[in-house]
Amino acid sequence: MLGRANYIALVGGGRNPKFATNKVIIWDDAKQLTSLTLSLPTPIHRALLSRSKILIATLNSISLYAFSSPPKKISSFETADNPFGLCCLGSQIIAFPGRTPGQVQIVEIETGNVSIIPAHSNPLRAMTLSPNGEILATASETGTLIRLFSTANCARIGELRRGVDPAQIFSLAISPSSTLLA
Predict the structure, then answer these.
(1) What is the pTM of this model?
(2) Are 100 and 111 in contact (CB under 8 A)?
(3) Angle in degrees, CA 122, 113, 89, rounded to 5
(4) 62 within 8 A of 87, measured Cβ to Cβ
(5) Which residues pair with 148 in a beta bridge?
(6) Do the Cβ atoms of 80 and 68 come closer than 8 Å?
(7) How does pLDDT run across 133-176, given as a tens digit for each residue?
(8) Which residue from 35, 56, 120, 175 has the least number of CB within 10 angstroms?
């Protein structure tokens, strides 16, 4: 759902999906009708909305669209296998898994500049961007470390050890003030 707006991104899934798994339906809840539809050649794993952008994750790619009618493709990026649809959409940057497992790509939306962060030695399991877009938190499939990076210079600014036993981390979240991590 897009903040306080009435738009919701819907993707088909489950045993008997109402929508195809390769389509994103942008639903306008105030008008009770479909506002936009985007079709891709492969199943969609995640769709994120901002007031001006739509970010879509598939198994091996990330696509950025302008939130317009019809949606205009701005850019597309290849990724390593991304079965969890990991991606983050900020006001100025997008972040998603790189082409190599464990890496994160950060792209400046306006300029297209790409930065690569070697975040983990194993594939990524969870990632989140702070509300102001300055901090990126990541966890790998091993689940023993959560790492924090500055998006401005890609430097590691913190590392939290959860333990030595592997665990599945399903999500990460950073507080609105960027002072707490959950």
Answers:
(1) 0.91
(2) no
(3) 65
(4) yes
(5) 137, 158
(6) no
(7) 999 999 999 988 999 999 999 999 999 998 888 889 999 999 99
(8) 175
